[in-house]
Structures are given as C-alpha cells and as structure tokens.
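Record filed below.
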Amino acid sequence: MKKLFIIVLLLCLVESTFAQQKFYQIGNYPLENGQILKDCKIGYRTFGKLNGDKSNAILVPTWFTGTSQQKSFVANPSDIADSTKYFVIVVDALGNGVSSSPSNSVSQKDKLFPTISIRDMVNTEYKLVKESLKINHLYAVTGISMGGMQSFQWMVSYPDFVDKIVPIIGSPKQSSYDKLYWNLQLNIIERGQYANETMKTVNALHQLNLWTPSSREENTQSDDYANYIKKIEEDALKLNPYDWAIQLKAMINHDIFQGKKPEEIATKVKAKVMIVVATQDHMVNPQAAIRFGKLLKAPIVELTGNCGHMATSCEGDKMRAHIKGFLD
C-alpha cells in the first residue's frame, strides 16, 4: 500500500511538472473599455481528471507577470489544489507574455496593445472554462496576489458560477498606498520610454516592497549587497516592460465596487469565501480585503510574520492547512 501511494505521488509530481501548455483561441474580443483585443488567446494548463458530473474543477489564475508553468506547483497533492482530488486549471492571465500580451501580439504589439482590466482577465477566463472546457460550474477559484485580485472579481462578475473562492494576499480594491507604489513603477517605465534598461530600477523597486525591511536585513547582509543588486539587475533584463506595464495598469484600476458601497456588493456574493492576508504586506495592502471579509462574515487567515508579500512562502504550511481544510 505504501509503495502504491509513493507511485501515485510521483505520478502527480511528474504531471504537475510536465503538463502541456494549451491555448484557447477566442478571436477578436471586446474589452471592458470598448477597445478590441485582436486574436485574443488564453493560455492554460490542466492537472488531474474532471469527474463525471464536472463538479471538481478549480481555477487558479496567475499572479502579476506569473505564468501557468510557474504556478503548476499548486496542483501537487501536498499543495492547495490537490490534483488527485480536483481537476485543476491554471490559467495565464492576459498580459503575462503567454496569453495575449503586448510582447506576443502580431497586430497590436507593444504600445499598440489595448489597455486591459482585471475584469477582462476574469471574463476571458470564464470563456475558457465555459466555452472551451465545457464546464458549467467551478468548485473553486483561488489565486495569489494579482490572482487574488482576480479571485475577488470572480465573486461579483460570476456569483452563481463558483462554490468556493479563496483570494490569497489580494485585494478587492487598491489602497492609495498601492496606487502610489504601482504608479511609481509605471512612471519609471513610461518616462524611460519602455527601454529594457529601465527594468533594472523597476525590479529593484519591486523587490524592495516584496519583503519587509526586517526580512531583507535578515536575508541579505550589508556586505552581500553588491551581489544581491547584481542578481536583481540581471533578472530584470529578462522582463518585458510592455507586459509589465499592461498588467500594472490593470491592477491600478482594479476595483470590484465600481462606485457602489462595499455593503451592497457583499450582498451579491454567493460563493463561500475564505480570505488570506499578510498583515505586514508592503505590496498589496491587506486592509480592504480584511474589511470586505468582515462584511462577508468570511474566515480570514492572517499571516503575521515579517516576510511581507512573500508570507505565502514563509508561512506556507499554515496557509495550506487552512485552505485545504476549507476546500475539502
């Protein structure tokens, strides 16, 4: 029996490592702002098996600039979306360089690419699930950071379509601090005329708020700074400024309330919700998520360590235990 379990576990790990990149070709897609995204395509990877009544599907949208390949680990049996139980769909959000993006568009390349929103990301994900995968209802949606923002949007865009939603260190609406921070990155890119060299500064700024000052001090000694910043700048040259900027704009304008009172929006949420926040997050302020969670009377899991936005790594065991308990 033990050998059988080990074999099954290894097969699941292999599947999560080598799941094939797939695409759904939507065609010309009307965006929320009225513009047309030409030849829209959505990338995704699937793990596990869809059961007979199609009731075990979990959608996992990617984080800011993340890809489904990077996010495949969530389908491991030990992680939050166990592919031995669930049919896990890890979807590449618009603008991430895999799905339709400034960097890969043929007819709307770079600056010609239209502005997208978190709503647009969610709407195209819905089309993937409903039209391509022929799934009429999701068991759950869960995502980290920008994936958490998409999870909040799923609550209000498709309230009857999902049973359970778990936003992880996301927000239903950006705080003034968030807007200041994201706009600072965007301004650097725009004033640098989208030159690849500007991404060195942008990535350094990104790393600054990814962790708390105390965790950075613990993990990088002052004498190691030269090597630390060298690695940041080397990694930055792999980043596409147009893709980075287009997803920044989507996050900056993210707001599930759209001028309505949070109390009113809360009454429209039908899914069971659990919210995970990092109380020392310097990248996505947790207060809006906490306030909305209280309106929903949803359980709120607080990651309180000093890792900031990276609390999901530092306190991963705690987070996974809560989420797996909620989903199972």
Observations:
- The CA atoms of residues 108 and 253 lie 21 Å apart.
- Residues 1-17 have pLDDT under 50 and may be disordered.
